[in-house]
Amino acid sequence: MRAVRSGVEISLRMRVALLAAVMVGLAAAGVSAAAFWVVKSALFSDLDDQLRQRAATVVASGVGDDPQNLPAAALYGSDIRVELVNPQGGGFAIRNSPPPPIGQPELAVAAGRLDNSLRTTHDMRVLAVPAGGGLALVLAQPMSPVRHTLAGLGVVLALVGGAGVVLAGLAGATVAGAGLRPVQRLTAATERVAATGDLRPIPVTGNDELARLTHSFNLMLGAVAGAQEQQRRLVADAGHELRTPLTSLRTNVELLIAAGSGSGAAALPEADRKEIFDDVRGQIEELSTLVGDLVELARDDAPQAVHEQVDLVEVVERALQRVRRRAGDVRFEAQLMPWTLPGDATALERAVLNLLDNAAKWSPPDGVVQVGLHPVGDGTAMLEVADAGPGIAKEDLAKVFDRFYRAAEDRGRPGSGLGLAIVKQVAERHGGSVRAGSSTSGGALLAVRLPGEAG
Which residues pair with 82 in a beta bridge? Predict the structure, then answer.
């Protein structure tokens, strides 16, 4: 319900109060109408019964045989008009009393064409019954007392109904105010978040629908806070990781510019110049890799549901072909069992390639990297990559898949510290998980568990 006047919108509390008042008003109107109709019917029925009883008493007194006895038989009702009429309209009335209205129905009763008649005319209830001797006894009683009673009843019902509507409106406003208090807290929290960025949770009381709504809102606030914290960490870590290669790159470029400016600076030997150029090229490649990994990790939009079945064996084999071309003397031995899953083949290949590159980086010359893919038996398969390197320290096992995390001995090696974080992200997007451990040869063992089915 909206208030169009003056462009003002009625609050939810006021709408609830108005709705309660309208519903009670309709109920009160229905009850009042029914009560009025029942009382009216009862009053008219009682009036008719009284007329019939008086008519029966007068007829039983033998007034038809002795019309002169009419006054003595009917004077007990001062508001009753009584008259004996014949078929021609003549008759006997009570002395000094107005005669009742006489019409065709009463004459028809006197003529014997009707057993009786009962009608309302001239604001009077008129009854005609046969009295014997070719006469009809006509009794008429004013309806003003009944109408006065009904008018009083209508006023009472209107007052009671109006009071009920007012009380219902007040009760509706009170109940709405109490019931909507959690909604008001949610509104205040939303405005607080929009104005200050404060993501503190809202206290939850009770276990009704509004309490569940508050709990869901708190979950949303927690998710937003987690996303903001993750974003801050990503920016801080990215800034830290970018600072070193950028500083080194700037130093080398300034050195090259100074050496080639001819402003008195000593010329660089060709070997030093070539070394600096190679260093600059490597730093640019490192920056490109780092930026690409950052873009991959910073994607906030979750991928669309992919219903295409991916052959994981084909994905691993393509990754092996790529890594063998750049791994030097490191050999890769693979034992792969068929496994398929719905997912993104490109992202899965990127994750597998990162695992293989990491193993190649840590393996010694002529080292062997073992790659295995086998079902676990619970609807998932395990992809394991084991190298022959120095292995992972126990304190680092829980951190190797974190963003920008690099062990102390890894600081001097190329890399961005994001490759294994991308592996974890891809695995989780496909409903899987990752873990790190030690291989049988003492090297590192990195494993990815993925759901699917045997191909």
Answer: 139
Count of C-beta atoms within a 10 Å radius of residue 139: 23
| Tens-digit pLDDT profile for residues 375-387 | 998 899 999 999 9
Main-chain dihedrals φ then ψ at residue 308, nearest 5 degrees: -80, 135
Separation between Cα atoms, residue 200 and residue 274, nearest integer Å: 57
> At a CB cut-off of 8 Å and minimum separation 6, what does 296 contact?
350, 418, 422, 425
Token pair of 187, please? 């509104």
The sheet with strand 380-386 has its strands ordered as 331-336, 368-375, 380-386, 444-451, 433-438
| Distance in angstroms (rounded) separating the CA atoms of residues 206 and 117 | 70
Model pLDDT for residues 118-133, shown as the tens digit of each residue: 999 989 999 999 988 8
Alpha helices in 180-305 (DSSP H): 181-196, 209-259, 270-297
CATH number assigned to the domain covering 209-297: 1.10.287
- Mind listing the pLDDT tens digit for each residue in 195-214? 887 777 877 777 777 778 87
Provide the CB-side half-sphere exposure for 326 (13 A, CA): 10
What is the C-alpha end-to-end distance of the chain, expressed in Å? 59
Residues near 56 by Cβ (< 8 Å), separated by ≥ 6?
129
Q: Which CATH superfamily is domain 309-451 in?
A: Histidine kinase-like ATPase, C-terminal domain (3.30.565.10)
Q: State the Cα–Cα distance between residues 193 and 216, nearest whole angstrom.
A: 15
Distance CA 352, CA 426 (A): 10
